[in-house]
């Protein structure tokens, strides 16, 4: 059974930092592209960041470039999202996703991913 379990969310003031983690089990983690997506109330789910299997390539949404950093530890089957300089508009439910299909050009698309976590809430107060 495949499981993706996110953690690290919480309430933080604007300008603060959080580090999200997503632990994956039931799959060969090293074979998957990993992504982070988020969904704010009343809005569609949107791409945040993704990393290829060997961490050779990463991708970021324009809104988080320079503030967020994605990384992965294949030995621990875990992907991370370091979020700095948080803004109130970063408030959302953050999901991690895993998939074998995504390529460098498609890993920003949520329909490329096969498995999703339950999400972790990030709330940034002004």
In short:
The protein has strands spanning 3-7, 10-13, 18-25, 33-39, 46-51, 58-60, 68-73, 78-83, 92-99, 115-116, 120-125.
Please characterize this protein's 3D structure.
By secondary structure, the chain is an all-beta fold. It is built from no helices and eleven strands. The chain has strands spanning 3-7, 10-13, 18-25, 33-39, 46-51, 58-60, 68-73, 78-83, 92-99, 115-116, 120-125. The strands form two sheets. Strands 2, 4, 5, 6, 9, 10 and 11 form a seven-stranded mixed sheet that branches. The protein is globular and about 40 Å long. The N and C termini lie far apart (40 Å). The model has no long low-confidence stretch (mean pLDDT 97).
Count of helices? Answer: 0
General shape:
globular
**Main sheet properties:** 7 strands, mixed
Give the N-to-C terminal Cα separation. Answer: 40 Å
Helical content (DSSP H or I, runs of 4+): under 10%
Structural class: mainly beta
How much of the sequence lies in strands comes to over 45%
Order of helices and strands: EEEEEEEEEEE
Uncertain parts? none
Indicate the mean pLDDT.
97
- Our Rg estimate from Cα atoms comes to 13 Å
Write down how many β-strands occur, each being a DSSP E stretch of 2 or more residues: 11
Q: Which keywords apply here?
A:
mainly beta; single chain; four-stranded antiparallel sheet; 126 residues; seven-stranded mixed sheet
Architecture blueprint of SSEs:
Elements: E1 3-7, E2 10-13, E3 18-25, E4 33-39, E5 46-51, E6 58-60, E7 68-73, E8 78-83, E9 92-99, E10 115-116, E11 120-125
Parallel strand pairs: 2-11
Antiparallel strand pairs: 1-3, 3-8, 4-5, 4-9, 5-6, 7-8, 9-10, 9-11
């Amino acid at each position: 059974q495949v499981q993706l379990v996110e953690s690290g969310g919480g309430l933080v003031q604007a300008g603060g930092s959080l580090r999200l983690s997503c632990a994956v089990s039931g799959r060969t983690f090293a074979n998957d592209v990993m992504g982070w997506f988020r969904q704010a109330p009343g809005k569609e789910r949107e791409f945040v960041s993704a990393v290829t299997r060997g961490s050779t390539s990463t991708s970021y949404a324009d809104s988080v470039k320079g503030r967020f950093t994605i990384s992965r530890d294949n030995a621990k089957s875990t992907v991370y999202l370091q979020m700095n300089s948080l803004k109130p508009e970063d408030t959302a439910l953050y999901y991690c996703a895993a998939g074998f299909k995504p390529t460098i050009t498609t890993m920003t698309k949520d329909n490329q991913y096969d498995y999703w976590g339950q999400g972790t809430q990030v709330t940034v107060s002004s």
